[in-house]
Amino acid sequence: MQVSKLFVGNLSYSTDEYELKELFSKHGTVKSVTIIPNKGFGFIEMSSPAEAQAAKEALNLTFVSGRNINVNEARPQKERPRGGFKKYGGFKKSPRRF
After folding, report:
1. In DSSP terms, which residues pair with 44 in a beta bridge?
2. What are the residue ranges spanned by the domains of the chain?
């Protein structure tokens, strides 16, 4: 494992950043915790790849807030095309009729 950022999935919507930080800090220093609201997943950044690996091995499929969480390496975010509707045809303005 080369990265120190972890993806945590299958989170209960009631799980908060404090709870995850406490859980992961048992395996190293937690630099940041981000939970994506109403999506059931988040990201944990550890201070080193070794700590991230230890946390991944120890916490994958652990029972937290009523669910078995999934812990994996965070993949880089894919680039998405930007430009909105105009790039793909979009909406045509029609003349106003009164």
Report:
1. 6, 33
2. 5-73
Between CA 1 and CA 40 the distance in angstroms is 24
Q: pTM above the 0.85 mark?
A: no
**Concatenated DSSP letters for 3-56?**
--EEEEES--TT--HHHHHHHHGGGS-EEEEEEETTTTEEEEEESSHHHHHHHH
Angle at the Cα of 40 from the Cα atoms of 37 and 41, rounded to 5 degrees: 90
In tens, the pLDDT along 45-89 reads 999 999 999 999 999 999 999 999 999 999 988 887 775 555 555
Please state which CATH class domain 5-73 belongs to. alpha beta
